[in-house]
Amino acid sequence: MIPLNLTVSTESWPIAGSFTISRGAKTEAVVVVAELGGGKAPDVIGRGECVPYARYRESVDSVTAALEAMRPHLAAGLDRAGLQQAMPPGAARNALDCAFWDLEAKRSGKPVHDLAGLPAPHRLTTAFTISLASPALMAKAARKAARRALLKIKLGGDGDDDRIAAVRAAAPHATLIVDANEGWTEQNLEANLAACAKAGVVLVEQPLPEADDGALAHIERPLPICADESAHGLSSLAALAGKYDAVNIKLDKAGGLTEALAMRAQAEALGLTVMAGCMVATSLAMAPAVLLAQTARYVDLDGPLLLAKDRPHGLYYADSLVYPATPALWG
Is there a contact between 174 and 204 (Cβ–Cβ < 8 Å)? Predict the structure, then answer.
């Protein structure tokens, strides 16, 4: 039982241009960072970063308050295992869970993958996101990124068939994933899926709102469908079978690397293809997700690429490749 001190801070990171999905646009990524330290090595600090997300009824204030409420428990010796029961899945627990992992790695001198019983991580091919816009603007963005191996196309509005056709024409060789962010309806689902299939899209994320996704169990699908907003923590996975072919696991939804790894194992047992995803955030949020992504079929860890600048010691990206973190960043 090691008493720990907690520091909570909020940071704002400008986005390069804007990031637009079916629910709206933003020009900055606001993140909350948790730092843990204390005990016999007070100068050793573990860090974790999360993104409060309004879609899941989170705000900077609510996440900060949830973290601050853990302060007396941490001072009383709460550890990472106890954290899983002390907090529900979500952004706040993600920041603390990842801070615990980082602190354990620094105190033990062992990397997180060793502590978690995982193989050493290797570089991965990550998607690069094209924001929702007019067909012409999306084609322009896709043309600029056409050399990348994997593009994630944000859809979710009228005229999505024209958008995906324009993107395909602009990036004829890239593998395409579509993310509708709950922006389609049962009425336009079939036509939009057909347009995606015609464009050679390999996966569609969350076409329908979570409340309406039961319809997916009764349709003919020309390509696989992936759950995102319908997938939360470990307990949500069983309900996805029969409706979805894949699941996007994000640390901010799972509540940290600990539960995300358990979700990955359970998803594979259920026959669901795994995508490792992210919110728009810095490399500190991506670093633990790189470990989760090692066995994922699809990787979408481009958050830092969408920022005007990343934090010091950020992940190294080379074209479509993302490399594991160095100890100077995390883990």
Answer: no
- pLDDT tens digit sequence for 266-288: 999 999 999 999 999 999 999 99
Q: Is there a contact between 9 and 270 (Cβ–Cβ < 8 Å)?
A: no
Clarify whether 198 is annotated catalytic: no
d(CA 40, CA 2): 9
pLDDT tens-digit map of 180-208: 999 999 999 999 999 999 999 999 999 99
Answer yes or no: do 129 and 110 share one domain. Answer: no
Q: End of a domain among 75, 96, 115?
A: 115
Establish if 327 belongs to a structural domain: no
For residue 214, what is the domain's CATH number? 3.20.20.120
The model's pLDDT over 75-92, given as tens digits with 9 standing for 90+, comes to: 999 999 999 999 999 999
- Whether the CB-CB separation of 248 and 300 falls below 8 Å is answered with yes
User: Which of 144, 250, 253, 309 is an active site residue?
Assistant: 250
Check residue 2 and give its pLDDT: 84
d(CA 247, CA 276): 8
Q: Which of 154, 198, 243, 253 is catalytic?
A: 154
Would you call 40 a catalytic residue per the annotation?
no
